Amino acid sequence: MSILIMGMGYVGLTTALVFSELGWKVTGMDPDERKINSLLQGALPFYEPGLGTLLKKHLHANMSFSSDPKTAVQQHSFVFLCVGTPSQTDGSANLGYIQQAAEWIGKYMQEYKLIVVKSTVPIGTQEKIARWIQDAQPLPIPFDVISNPEFLREGTALHDALSPDRIIIGSNSEQAAEQLKQLYVKLDCPVQITTPKTAEIIKYAANAFLATKISFVNELARFCDKIGVNISDVSEGIGMDHRIGKHFLRAGIGYGGSCFPKDVKALLFTAKEKQAQLTILEKVFQVNETQFLYFLDNLERQLASFQGKTIAILGLAFKPDTDDLRESPALSVIKSLVEKQAVVRAHDPVAKLPSTFLSDKVIQCETIEETVSQADAVILCTEWPEYRKTNWGELKKRMKQHYFFDGRNVLSSEQMSAWGFHYQGIGNR
Ligand code: UDX
User: What secondary structure letter does DSSP report for 253?
Assistant: First the structure.
């Protein structure tokens, strides 16, 4: 059995390398020749711990790459769709890349294919993909389209894909579902076989629920600020109840990344289309949109004004262990500070600010020391471990004023205050 993975983004490349590791022959296909050429040289197109080692291990053995859809489709029995489904301005998912991939499959297939959809797609897309394939076929050849959503997280992609909590298979054909199950036979986790539509909604519901937990705790943090209670203690206390669970209860400046913001919007868009209401999710979105503003308002009050102040931003990526800036709250914070005429000095261990952000008022520094030099305040936006390990007592001497705003509640309030900082997190006043 040979596997073709279309789309060499996070999900595609991780899935390809995980199947190689599980012993299957895999080809990764992407029309972007530059990406394919660099993968063929063993270079990852993004930062993700552990993936580079796996690429070097399997390259030219189990794992090969191609930018030619025709031979790629013809030479493989399983075709996984892992292409992007970015948000459009109205919140709906753009299915352009999915449609293109489906048309290639229809046009080039010469025998039965099992097509597996891993991209996060709106409810009902499996049916559309089947139609697009059929419409592109010069002659009718049988195929199945299965929905098999992916739940991996950036930063821990490899671990998540090799040790998943569950595998969801949405298929109209029992036989096709069994064939797909065989690919995962070495993984020890429950497998749920269901309908394609159910599998599609499971993916959205999982992300929407996790986003709900975060917005819930973020709004509760605002309340904790009012009543003088520490939100981290509340999260710890409620998280010990196994019905609630301790994960995704960390308050902060809001969720970002390529999934939660996009998937929440896409689900709200579909609900509107179907004239259904997802009231809770509407609020989840609103809380997240305003969380960094709530934080900045508090800071502005303390500093009297941001105008002319030098603010050090620690962390640009939407979370640690990735260089991904998509929907990163740090970027919203920087935009807002620039509007308020502050001078921004930013740092991230791996992520780089896009050139459109850089100016004489916004610079990216190489080291933490350089970033905080002459700063009036520090805003920690991403909880990279190095920020926790820094000797802030020492670095304080480089700063002009000693305001420290911890947007991820990761430093010790007691220790920072003992070092003489005006320290503030979220929900811990
Ligand atoms: C998410 C899902 O977790 C994953 O299952 C899905 O396949 C893709 O989307 P990812 O976006 O990589 O994964 O990161 P995740 O760890 O879920 O974090 C998303 C955002 O939520 C980050 O901005 C993170 O900082 C934030 N977050 C997470 C919080 O603010 N508080 C928390 O307690 C947890």
Answer: S
